[in-house]
Amino acid sequence: MSVDTGSALPPAISVAGLRRVYETKPQPVVALAGVDLEVRPGEFFGLLGPNGAGKTTLIKILTTLLLPTSGEARIFGFDVSTESNRIRRIMNMVAGGEQSGYGILTVREQLWMFTQFYGLEAREGWRRVDELIEAVGMGDQRLQRVSTLSTGQRQKMNMARGLLNDPWILFLDEPTLGLDVAAARGIRDLVLAWKAAVPGRTVLLTTHYMAEADELCERIAIVDHGRILAIGTPDELKKRVQRESIFRLEVDHLDGGAPSLARLPGVVSASLAADSDPEQQRVAVNLVLTEDAALGAVVSALGGLGSQILALRKSEPTLEDVFVELVGRGFSEETEPPVPVGAEA
Amino acid sequence: MSAIPVDRARVDRSAVFAHSRGGTDPRTAARWTRRQVAANNMRALIGRAYPRVRGMVREPSWLFFEILLPFLTTSAFVFVYRALQAPEAYIGFVVLGGALSAFWLNVVWMMAGQLYWEKSQGNLELYFAAPMNLMAILLGMAIGGLVMSSLRAAAVLVISTLVYGVTFSVDQWLLVVVVFVLTLSALYGLGMMLASLFLLWGREAFHMTNVLIEPVYFVSGLNFPVGRLGALGALAIATLPFAVGLDAMRQLVFAGQPYITGTPSPELEALILLGMTIVFTLLARWTIHRIERIARHRGTLSIRWQ
Ligand SMILES: Nc1ncnc2c1ncn2[C@@H]1O[C@H](COP(=O)(O)OP(=O)(O)O)[C@@H](O)[C@H]1O
Ligand SMILES: [Mg+2]
What φ, ψ does residue A41 adopt, rounded to 5°? Predict the structure, then answer.
């Protein structure tokens, strides 16, 4: 099955002048301070930002759970405030640390219950649940009670829930929050495989893990304090901060040390890398140049010093660099403790 | 896109993921026929009733708490009445009251707080984000609770009847059935309304129910005919579905008893119950949709935003 994205399909997400203010006690909180955004059908789009940036608020507005204070948001052309019924039929959402459902049910039963909320016929529901349980790799837990699942298993089940209705747009709010490396990897692979299976499926993912956004998303918006600071592909974003060229140079020896290179024209800085090992005839230098062309001077200077070049590699900036540059501060990739388990019917 | 090792699981799942109920494009998929909408609501109702029924079967400990404890409370009143040498008819009144209170307790204790609990669990958001009408969820909760309470009521009724030798005399079977069904409809209509209101009021509502539960039992005539309460009983009959239903059932299953006086005829009480069902259900519907608006406006559909 394929979607003809060439036809006049409206954007999967279109947001214009979106503001959201929470009327909280001492003073109101401006969670979204005027957001404009357009996501194409079939795109894997990421919102990257620190805690409190407004990511969840935006997702809640797009999933029809929260009304905008002002501005407009549409999903495949349907207005989130007035056409929520339509939107709810073609979307689904999964959040990290989600504790939904009833602990007393088995994985299979809980998922079946959710199929019934999306209008699957009863038997079709069971069939779909069994298929998806296998597809997310929970075959061994299918008859296990929901209350006994580990955090990683729980999140796999939540993912299966999010796919039950074959949504056209899937909202993932920090889906790997609090998971170990392997479990997070599993969730990411799952989303990629699911999305690739049908053209036109759209994913909006929020995360505060840089590497996750970098790996999964075709385009990323960096958000902070309810505003989008930059939008682009990961490469485009990284190019924004790449005003200088950064190289890693390895030579067998370097007479005069790093300062002998730092003096050269076009070299902003040169410093010995921590993993240098002069004893083993391996000296690594981090070079920052005003432009790539300045490398010529470095290479000829090395010849004059009698150093032999073992390796030369251009270092790419990371999204972290982009973020620090845009926001003026980094954000630690701390994980929050998962919400305690405990559910009853 | 990153290189993912092609293993068996991935090959299998690509077929599963290629499944698309959603038609060939999202705009078409979002357009449902009336029939689809109705089927979705019907299934959602059953889906929401399911965990309640499933859980009941799975945790047999409910047998103990749900049947033995009410039986003991009922028994306590039986002994008191016997000690006071009250007319033997009162034993029957107590037993019937004990059985029907299973539904009342279910409505006040479980249903009323249910949506609030769902909210703290994160389920409420998923219910709102799914395509069904919220009344389907409320009705599903009601039906689930009703199935559970019916078993409990039946058990209390049968055990007490056998143990204390209660004799029933029914003249109008059809009316008994009608009144019973209407009593449940009115009770669960109230339950749906309370569930919506509790969501709006939160904690305070729980304290209020705690405080009110005993007085409501008293004015409803749990253990004696409500007609004995005079004006207060009349007020109860006009407002509390438990009071009307219980009184009507007593009149019908203990036909010809001299002690049940001072209240409207069972036919009239059936009409009152019908009116209550309609009013409560409409109010529940109005409240839940109103709450959706309010909660989307204020951002209070979940408590997990911190
Ligand atoms: N329901 C709410 N009521 C009041 N304030 C809220 C609510 N939800 C979020 N906020 C506040 O709005 C801001 C943005 O929050 P959120 O959208 O959850 O950010 P993120 O998901 O990026 O961490 C924060 O300051 C948060 O405290
Ligand atoms: Mg968030």
Answer: -60, 135
